[in-house]
Specification:
Blueprint lengths: L1 H24 L5 E7 L2 H18 L1 E7 L5 H11 L6 E5 L19 H4 L10 H4 L3 E2 L2 E2 L2 E2 L6 E5 H6 L10 H11 L3 E2 L2 E2 L4 E2 L7 H8 L17 H14 L4 E2 L6 H6 L5 E4 L8 H6 L4 E5 L16 E5 L6 H13 L1 H12 L26 H9 L11 H17 L4 H12 L4
Parallel strand pairs: 1-2, 1-3, 10-11
Antiparallel strand pairs: 3-14, 4-5, 6-14, 7-12, 7-13, 8-9
Helix pairs in contact: 2-13, 15-16
Length: about 425
């Protein structure tokens, strides 16, 4: 017992000496950096790299998964309380609710003074940065590009004499799609060319709209729904929709519709391509991937949908260091190649890494096509969309009026005027 007591005393002395050493030399425990994320798959990536990031920056990185439904409310509550506020947040680009053109009203700090001087940031696709730019301020570092491609059932299309790979424009696509829907059963097409929920700017319409260059907000955040380019797109879209080539966008049954041949093609960001894997593995049909047809020749052949960004809470301390940490987390090339693309199949938004062999591998689901290389080419053409404070509410207002325009209850002119008038009242 005496010996054990002496050992305990000796250990206590060592602890006291160590604590004293830290106090007298100015050393301290690693700074704790708290990060919230809503995306479990992205958290897997951060967790896999956690010790590496901590070692590089001499920090204690605390990554917390926060439920998407509670994210904004919880963040608002802790910021009002001033306690347990995270330093960094990973949040969705769409319907984000935490950014504002006025930095005083934004949850996140503007990153302009850091990003403007960064040699790394200049390689990030401008079309993705646009989604987190409000009032000229860059508020976040995008995690991904999500370039949109077209996935199509080559077997079904060629059976009706159409080579989708040779189609140049959307006008051509919808004209050729009449051959696809010609076979009917009980008065309805057996096969459909595209899915759509037909609810306004969402899913397929959302992606094709981005190709047009027709903005719904000006660069200073004002609504522009009566812009001639946007008006022409809405009119054209309604004509295309009324050709009968669309079926519903059924999230739950999407894979099944591909397997049974009901759905012969769809526009897809990288995170939705896997919906076709079961159908491709079954072997009944051959599937292929291509860039989107042109809306107008010479324009972009892609769009984006979904995604997240890493932001810095405006009350966070040591923001210079935090920016370096978040930039490394998002744009370290080794992290991309080792974790992000292999784990998620999401193309990183950092162009200097796209030449890697990682993105040039044959994909058995598509007969050996190099899907990553197609996505890289699309990412180079990524269009920019003017975002801003009222953007997502304005999209919702368009969705409220669109059914009446599509059905002919109101004219496109009258419908867009109604949306514009309503959008002018949004704050």
């Amino acid at each position: 017992m005496l010996r054990k007591g002496r050992i305990a005393v000796a250990l206590l002395i060592v602890v006291v000496l160590v604590v004293g050493l830290f106090a007298t030399t100015g050393l301290a425990a690693p700074r704790k950096v708290v990060m919230w994320s809503f995306a479990a798959n992205n958290v897997d990536e951060w967790k896999a790299r956690e010790s590496e990031i901590e070692g590089k920056f001499k920090i204690d990185l605390d990554i917390q998964l926060v439920a998407e439904q509670a994210f904004v409310q919880k963040l608002q509550a802790v910021m009002m309380d001033g306690k347990n506020v995270p330093d960094l947040v990973e949040w969705r680009i769409e319907q984000n609710q935490i950014l504002n053109a006025d930095p005083k009203k934004s949850f996140c700090a503007p990153l302009d003074k850091f990003s403007a001087k960064s040699k790394v940031f200049k390689n990030v696709v401008p079309g993705r940065v646009a989604w987190v730019t409000y009032g000229g301020h860059v508020y976040g570092l995008p995690h991904d590009v999500h370039p949109v491609v077209m996935v199509y059932n080559d077997t079904l299309w060629k059976a009706v004499g159409v080579d989708v790979a040779a189609i140049e424009t959307w006008d051509d696509f919808f004209a050729q799609a009449q051959k696809l829907i010609a076979e009917t059963q009980d008065g309805k097409p057996v096969h459909y060319a595209l899915p759509s929920s037909n609810g306004g700017l969402n899913d397929t319409m959302w992606m094709v709209w981005q190709q047009t260059g027709g903005q719904i907000l000006s660069k200073d955040g004002k609504p522009t729904f009566e812009d001639p380019t946007f008006k022409a797109f809405v009119e054209q879209w309604i004509k295309w929709y009324n050709t009968g080539v669309f079926t519903g966008w059924d999230w739950g049954a999407f894979g099944m519709l591909l397997k049974n041949g009901t759905l012969a093609s769809y526009t897809s960001p990288d995170w939705w391509i896997s919906q076709v894997y079961d159908a491709a593995n079954e072997g009944k049909y051959k599937f292929k991937v291509r860039a989107l047809p042109y809306y107008k020749k010479g324009g972009p052949r892609t769009a984006s949908w979904g995604g997240s960004f890493l932001g810095m809470i405006k009350t966070a301390k040591s923001q210079d260091q935090l920016y370096k940490i978040m930039e490394y987390m998002q744009y370290d090339e080794t992290g991309f190649l080792k974790y992000r693309f292999p784990l998620t199949q999401m193309l990183p938004p950092f162009s200097s890494v796209w030449s890697s062999p990682t993105f040039n591998q044959p994909d058995a689901h598509f007969g050996g096509q190099k899907v990553g290389a197609i996505q890289v080419q699309c990412a180079k053409e990524m269009p920019s969309v003017n975002s801003g404070d009222i953007f997502w509410n304005a999209v919702s207002e368009f969705g409220n009026v669109y059914p009446d325009m599509q059905s002919g209850k109101v004219s496109v002119d009258a419908g867009l005027k109604k949306v514009q008038d309503k959008a002018l009242t949004l704050k």
